[in-house]
Design brief:
The chain has about 90 residues and is mainly alpha-helical. Helix content is about 85%, strand content about 0%. It has three helices and no strands. The longest helix has about 30 residues, at about 35-65. The termini are far apart.
Length: about 90
């Protein structure tokens, strides 16, 4: 992040990029025939689900750069919980 005084720009960029990318993949998937279209729709859903993870990751890194250690560790805990939930969800699906 170029501006360490504000956490907003990096978070907004992460959310905006994820939203635009997932929307583009979903729209493309709806327009294309089933084999490729289905894969694009699944990729769009995966990006949509990964967007909050990217947001927390950007925020955690920014907090570490600002030396706000307690908030950084809280962010790391959230990332660990999100990662565990993905893996546990795949095991039990």
């Amino acid at each position: 992040m170029a501006d360490d005084s504000s956490l907003g720009p990096g978070v907004v960029r992460a959310l905006g990029t994820g939203t635009v990318l997932s929307g583009t993949l979903l729209a493309s998937g709806l327009l294309l025939p089933p084999p490729l279209g289905t894969r694009l729709i699944l990729a769009g859903i995966a990006v949509m689900v990964a967007t909050p993870f990217a947001r927390v990751l950007v925020l955690t890194v920014a907090l570490g750069r600002r030396r706000e250690w307690s908030f950084m560790w809280a962010g790391i805990a959230v990332l660990v919980l999100l990662t565990l939930s993905v893996f546990l969800g795949r095991v039990h699906a």
